[in-house]
Design goal:
Number of domains: 3
Strand order of the largest sheet: 12-13-14-15-16-18-19-20
Helix content: 10-25%
Shape: globular
Distance between the termini: 57 Å
Strand content: 25-35%
CATH class of the largest domain: Alpha Beta
Length: 636
């Protein structure tokens, strides 16, 4: 087993702890020979915890199911019966049931991200203001209509546990899950020191401050791999430590609605993995991604639990390792899982009946045009997208389109690896381009003209970037989710990015897809304050300022006055051989980006100091609280 583990994770950029349990096996592994793992991470990993991200959803789901077992909660009762101050601008919220939160069919917009992940800051603000934020939101679909992954549903479940039990979720988790299972390294920000987390690195070996995930039920639990693996044993058949057999069976049923993918259970991401089902093995899976990553696999009947947590990589990487370990553990019980290699597809001309699918398609981020040049292949070309692209797909004898690497028209193209296949579906009067494992990916856009004044207003914003100004100075959104670009095109009238224009200052989605392609969305609202224009994504909690209203940073800037919830951006234009010296107060942050928006400096890079060489071109942002300032001096 140890040799197999070593083979699996060598080369992955993580500090890693693995535990595979069929009762007792526990392995903690490091790979000092892997140069891609910073030495500091290798030293930190053995005794530290990680944020288990969305695997946290299984803990809050378990808590609710315990309340179901005790008769205090009914799965098919409205959530508003248990959280009486849960209200939304959309009256359909009254139809959302507890079950719908667990199986991602609530119709909620997705995720309220503002304040969800903070550097070195523990706060109750996210929890305490969450219901107030929902009051302003609409639903993207009728409750129960289809599955679409949703973080906010599990934050609601966290609050439901508190309201029904009379305990804080931290107290409930400790008394009803951690203590019965003897989980010694599992808890929330309030009873596990987040400073004990495995570090996160950027730019190769630059260590970041600890990220604190505030949305506890949806993704904020701290643990280690051994404890997560122990938690997985609570779902073994015959183990009633936490849950009744009926509750576990209910959680493990396929809750996919109207053929949506994947096969969600209650809490679980997937309860039907085909290759394991063929071998008679029921396999339950849950993954998670924040700044740390995780995956939990449980085979209840075979009594196998596998957990992988990582700093770096992704939940997909974690799941790949989990599956390999699961196969080893199953083989030791005499069960061999067959993973047949995908056969090389037979590529043929596109049939005539597909010509009707030519036209504009959109997802929540962009609009694209699909065509079939000379019926040789399918071309997907960007129309309103931050970056231009063209993808080519060839039709196969099994009725799918596979992505190609190379140029089909020149005859120099082969199927891209790993093989990705897509198909057209007509459902409920809509046309979708779908993936057999991920579900609907694009939806055909119906033509809908807008007034000339509306089109003109959005065309004037075409190509402009808008930069994040809202939220806490400690918000991790400044590391990777800090701007958006608005794009229109005469080839897609009435569309801006993936939105449908509504008036000069509002755009939204009038075609929502089943599945995770529409998971975290927000209507778009433009506003002007003191002559400056902002793009507001209210459902996500983000507000961004137009690049036209951002000044150039010069050596005349010696002090930047800070304002709560209003970060100050500057353009760096021609700052060759310039170094900044920054005097940053405690409740403030500064980020410097190059012209590609790669982070060159952050005040949350530990041990970096306060002298910052500026890129010749780029951006700099100052964030903090009202009444404070950052002193700035420059040298050449």
């Amino acid at each position: 087993m140890k040799k197999k583990i070593k083979k699996l994770y060598s080369g992955i950029m993580i500090g890693l702890a693995l535990t595979a349990s069929a009762g007792a096996l526990a392995v903690n592994a490091k790979d000092p020979g892997n140069e891609s793992i910073p030495a500091a991470a290798a030293n930190d990993i053995s005794s530290s915890v990680l944020n288990i991200a969305s695997v946290s959803k299984m803990y809050v789901t378990t808590a609710v199911m315990q309340l179901v077992d005790s008769g205090k909660v009914e799965l098919d009762k409205p959530v508003a019966d248990y959280i009486t101050d849960f209200k939304m601008a959309d009256g359909r919220y009254k139809d959302i049931t507890v079950r719908m939160l667990m199986n991602h069919t609530s119709g909620l917009m997705g995720s309220t991200y503002a304040g969800a992940l903070l550097f070195d800051e523990i706060s109750m603000d996210y929890h305490d203001t969450f219901l107030q934020k929902l009051k302003r939101q609409r639903l993207k679909a009728d409750p129960g209509a289809f599955n679409c992954y949703c973080n906010d549903g599990f934050t609601l479940l966290e609050i439901l546990v508190e309201r029904v039990s009379g305990l804080s979720f931290t107290e409930y988790l400790k008394e009803n899950i951690s203590m019965p299972l003897s989980l010694e390294h599992t808890g929330t920000l309030w009873d596990v020191d987040p400073n004990g987390q495995v570090p996160v690195y950027i730019n190769g070996n630059v260590k970041l401050a600890n990220a604190v995930v505030q949305l506890i039920g949806a993704g904020g639990i701290l643990s280690d791999a051994e404890d997560v693996c122990k938690f997985g044993t609570a779902f073994f058949t015959g183990d009633n430590t936490l849950l009744s057999e009926e509750a576990k069976r209910e959680m493990a049923e396929n809750n996919s609605v109207d053929g949506c993918l994947p096969a969600f259970g209650l809490g679980w991401d997937n309860v039907e993995k085909e290759e394991y089902e063929k071998a008679g093995v029921k396999l339950l899976s849950k993954g998670g991604d924040a700044l740390h990553h995780s995956n939990l696999l449980v085979a209840p009947d075979e009594k196998i639990s596998v957990a992988v947590l990582s700093s770096g990589g992704s939940s997909t990487n974690c799941e790949e390792i989990c599956l390999e370990l699961m196969d080893v553990a199953l083989s030791e019980q005499g069960i061999d899982i067959v993973h047949p290699e995908k056969e090389k597809p037979e590529l043929i001309m596109v049939p005539d009946e597909y010509m009707k699918y030519e036209g504009l398609y959109a997802n929540t981020e962009k609009t694209m045009y699909i065509s079939f040049p000379d019926k040789r292949y399918m071309q997907v070309r960007s129309v309103t997208s931050e970056n231009e692209f063209e993808l080519q797909y060839m039709y196969t004898a099994d009725g799918t389109f596979v992505e190609m690497s190379g140029d089909v028209s020149s005859g120099n193209a082969i199927p891209a690896q790993p093989l990705q296949a897509y198909m057209f579906e007509e459902r409920n009067g809509q046309v979708y381009l779908s993936h057999p494992e991920m579900g609907c990916m694009l939806v055909k856009v119906r033509e809908k003209k807008v007034e000339e004044s509306v089109q003109k207003a959005w065309d004037e914003r075409n190509g402009l970037y808008y930069y994040l100004v809202s939220g806490s100075f400690s918000d991790t959104a400044y590391t990777d989710n800090n701007r958006m670009k608005l794009c229109t095109s005469d080839q897609a009238p009435g569309m801006v990015n993936g939105y449908r224009m509504q008036d000069e200052d509002h755009a939204g989605y009038d075609q929502i897809m089943p599945g995770s392609a529409s998971r975290d969305i927000s209507d778009l609202r433009m506003e002007r304050i003191d002559g400056k224009e902002y793009a507001c994504l209210d459902d996500l909690g983000f507000r961004l300022i137009s690049e036209k209203d951002i000044p150039v940073f010069t050596d005349k800037v010696t002090t930047v006055e800070l304002m709560s919830g209003e970060a100050s951006w500057f353009k760096i234009d021609g700052a060759k051989d310039v170094t900044l010296r920054l005097d940053i107060p405690e409740n403030a942050s500064v980020y410097v980006y190059d012209k590609y928006m790669n982070i060159k400096y952050s005040s949350y890079m530990t041990g970096y100091g306060n002298k910052v060489p500026l890129p010749e071109y780029g951006m700099i942002v100052f964030a903090g609280v009202t009444g404070q300032s950052v002193a700035v001096s420059t040298t050449k």
